[in-house]
Write a sequence for this structure.
């Protein structure tokens, strides 16, 4: 039977301030009290409010409604020591708290986490709190819906055939009017008529139903020896409790998921514990969700930025109440108000999308470690290609390293081969080398599947006029417009600007003079369609997989063998398991190496290992072809030899030699504004006021590689510290001391991953 009120607290309307059962009345001195409240706004610190006399002081973590410049806002009672950001007003000048919300308290560890993230990222604590209060609907009352159950029919009530069928359809399980009407095959009016006549008992049930409880007793697969060893280590620590970071370093297809599932099961043995699994892009985890459901008999709670308002409210409240036991989510799930976190996993921990590049700039993997530390629980970072940061932590003994060296079952890692494009070039205007084409032919003839990887959306990255040389650019960014031929549009991948594909050059007006330069996945699709008539081909990009349902459908089709060739961007590298996929072709293995930021080599290596890892995951062995102009490049050599360890070792030594992260520390300052002169001036002001500190170098300003985005001009400065950590107070002091020019936005990026 369904719980009658779901997870909803009683309605708030008529409640007085003291309704919270958590308060200890004896604790307060019954004087009007000063209460510090943190609001989800970019303010310097907490604000003071007053509690009327005789009201007990709400403990830190209580959600309250307070007046704020003529309206009401929801905030959280914050800890005594918090920074007020200004001077203290006398008590009688303070505004009173309006209402205490009947919601569970924000736990100690969450409040500490919010303060910690704010200090680390040089953000205001309110901006961080905003991420934790990210479901405004969850803070209001949850709507109720009328349900009906059986009751005694009043004597003498006239029963038509329609009414009788409703009475036959109702039982002790609450059902809505619509459900009953459907069951009985009558109109909704018949049901409401019966209810009015007193022949049905109405009860109000929260529209948010509780989530299913994962069943940790369902028998899992038999683990291999190395899987068992790794999972035993994790289980032991979960059982003991306390902070403990692991690196689960297992090759693609080695069964890392099965291993961390064991930690999750151990954590669920207590009744009130919660588990968080962070994944890079939740929209792409349809296979993972199915797998979870098979293993635990129910779906986990899913959290990401694209779930609807109602789903968000239901998830947020269930996490806050402790009812939600397992949450799988994108990086923002870190800020959910868990009551009692007992285990965290960060899957594909190397993935660049864990870095949030807007608002509060944080790296979810790094912050997950902090979250685990404050919650005093074990955390597993899982990857086949761990980040250098994590490897260094494992080597130094900060993290315990668990290794899976073999693919599960009969599967072996695919054979890697290079195609030297200088020798074996594709035909003019083509992108597939003859060798790759024949391998594809053979694979399809054998009834197996091919995946082609090219990390470029659209048809071509540049449209050029043959007559005047004009390159079609975005009107508000310093970028070329990318042709999307499927949609007959040109699009800016920075700001999203679109225009219809023109027939004539916008500059010189010559007709039929525009040429597409370079390949994108759509162009590859065209070539493959011409070469492989009758083959079933799909393009997997964020343009074709616009929602989780479409994604799940396409993934299902591939897994079921309904497609022969899959062409995709980085989306296809994300952990999918396609048993019949045996050939992977990397169209441009050198693509990620251009541009050369700090992690270009590392990232390319990780991405290509991941895409290669899609091949030969079941009983048929796989082959991977890398098309490259630089077969001698260390990244390509590492991929061919399978010796990633040596490659990462060399990367590590280089970083150490130049005191680059994780040995040293970087911080980017990004200046942007409409007025280029003001942006330049602000850069100059910062440069001249940079302090002189040993071991810290201030570089720039220089125009950003993306020198204009959405009409804003951009400049960058970079701070380099020889040592790891400790830059924040220096940067904070420097930036606050420098005069700020109106109209120039200063963004501080601690531990930057993007240098654009
Ligand atoms: P990884 O995440 O390391 O790439 P997965 O966890 O996806 O690997 O496992 C790869 C495949 O092997 C999956 O289909 C998984 O169900 C299967 N598998 C892994 N371990 C076992 C096991 N112990 N018993 C049965 N199947 C397993
Ligand atoms: Zn643009």
């Amino acid at each position: 039977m369904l719980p009658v009120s779901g997870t909803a607290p009683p309605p708030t309307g008529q409640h007085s301030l003291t309704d919270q059962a958590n308060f200890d009345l004896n604790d307060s001195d019954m004087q009007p009290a000063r209460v510090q409240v943190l609001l989800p706004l970019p303010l310097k610190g907490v604000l003071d409010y007053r509690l009327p006399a005789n009201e007990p002081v709400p403990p830190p973590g209580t959600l309250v409604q307070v007046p704020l410049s003529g309206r009401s806002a929801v905030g959280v009672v914050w800890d005594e020591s918090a920074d007020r950001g200004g001077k203290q007003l006398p008590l009688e000048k303070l505004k009173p708290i309006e209402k205490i919300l009947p919601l569970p308290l924000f736990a100690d560890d969450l409040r500490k986490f919010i303060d910690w993230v704010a200090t680390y990222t040089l953000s205001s604590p309110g901006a961080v709190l905003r991420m934790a209060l990210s479901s405004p609907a969850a803070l209001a009352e949850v709507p109720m819906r009328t349900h009906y159950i059986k009751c005694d029919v009043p004597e003498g009530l006239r029963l038509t055939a329609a009414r009788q069928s409703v009475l036959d359809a109702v039982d002790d399980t609450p059902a809505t009017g619509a459900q009953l009407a459907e069951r009985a095959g009558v109109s909704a009016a018949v049901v409401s008529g019966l209810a009015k006549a007193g022949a049905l008992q109405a009860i109000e049930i929260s529209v948010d139903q509780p989530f299913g409880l994962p069943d940790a007793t369902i028998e899992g697969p038999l683990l291999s020896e190395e899987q068992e060893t790794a999972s035993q280590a994790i289980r032991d620590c979960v059982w003991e409790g306390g902070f403990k970071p692991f690196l689960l370093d297992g090759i693609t297809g080695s069964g890392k998921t099965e291993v961390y599932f064991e930690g999750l099961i151990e954590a669920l043995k207590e009744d009130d514990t919660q588990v968080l699994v962070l994944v890079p892009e939740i929209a792409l985890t349809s296979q993972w969700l199915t797998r979870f459901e098979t293993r635990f008999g129910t779906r986990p709670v899913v959290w990401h930025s694209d779930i609807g308002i109602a789903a968000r409210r239901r998830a947020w409240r269930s996490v806050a109440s402790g009812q939600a036991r397992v949450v799988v989510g994108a990086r923002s799930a870190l800020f959910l108000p868990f009551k009692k976190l007992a285990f965290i996993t960060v899957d594909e921990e190397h993935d660049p999308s864990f870095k949030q590049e807007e608002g509060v700039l944080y790296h979810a993997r790094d912050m997950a470690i902090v979250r685990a530390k404050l919650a005093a629980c074990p955390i597993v970072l899982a990857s086949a290609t761990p980040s250098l940061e994590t490897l260094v932590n494992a080597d130094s003994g900060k993290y315990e390293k668990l290794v899976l060296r073999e693919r599960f079952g009969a599967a072996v890692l695919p054979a890697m081969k290079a195609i030297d494009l200088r020798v074996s070039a594709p035909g003019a205007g083509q992108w597939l080398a003859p060798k790759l084409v024949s391998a594809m032919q053979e694979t399809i003839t054998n009834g197996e599947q091919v995946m082609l990887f090219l990390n470029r959306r659209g048809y071509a990255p540049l449209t050029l006029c043959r007559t005047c040389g004009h390159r079609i650019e975005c009107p508000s960014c310093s970028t070329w417009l990318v042709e999307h031929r499927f949609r007959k549009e040109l699009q800016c991948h920075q700001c999203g600007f679109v225009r219809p594909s023109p027939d004539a050059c916008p500059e010189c007006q010559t007709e039929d003079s525009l040429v597409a330069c370079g390949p994108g996945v759509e162009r590859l699709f065209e070539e493959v369609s011409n070469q492989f008539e009758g083959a079933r081909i799909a393009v997997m990009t964020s343009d074709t997989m616009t929602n989780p349902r479409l994604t799940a459908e396409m993934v299902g089709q591939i897994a079921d063998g309904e497609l022969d060739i899959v062409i995709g961007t980085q989306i296809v590298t994300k952990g999918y398991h396609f048993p019949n996929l045996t050939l992977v072709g990397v169209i441009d293995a050198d693509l990620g190496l251009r541009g050369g930021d700090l992690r270009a080599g590392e990232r390319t290596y990780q991405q290509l290992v991941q895409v290669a890892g899609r091949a030969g995951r079941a009983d048929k062995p796989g082959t991977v072809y890398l098309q490259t102009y630089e077969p001698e490049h260390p990244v390509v050599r590492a991929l061919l030899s399978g010796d990633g360890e040596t490659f990462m070792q060399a990367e590590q030594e280089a970083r150490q030699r130049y005191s680059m992260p994780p040995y040293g520390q970087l911080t980017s300052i990004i200046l942007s504004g409409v007025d280029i002169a003001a942006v330049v001036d602000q850069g100059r002001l910062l440069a001249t006021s940079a302090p002189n500190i040993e071991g810290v170098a201030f570089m720039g300003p220089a125009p950003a590689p993306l020198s204009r985005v959405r009409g804003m001009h951009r400049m960058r400065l970079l701070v380099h510290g020889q040592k790891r950590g400790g830059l924040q107070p220096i940067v904070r002091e420097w930036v606050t001391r420098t005069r700020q020019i109106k109209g120039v936005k200063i963004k501080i990026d601690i531990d930057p991953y993007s240098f654009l």
User: Anything to note?
Assistant: Residues 63 and 76 are 5 Å apart (CA to CA). Confidence is low (pLDDT under 50) at residues 1-29.
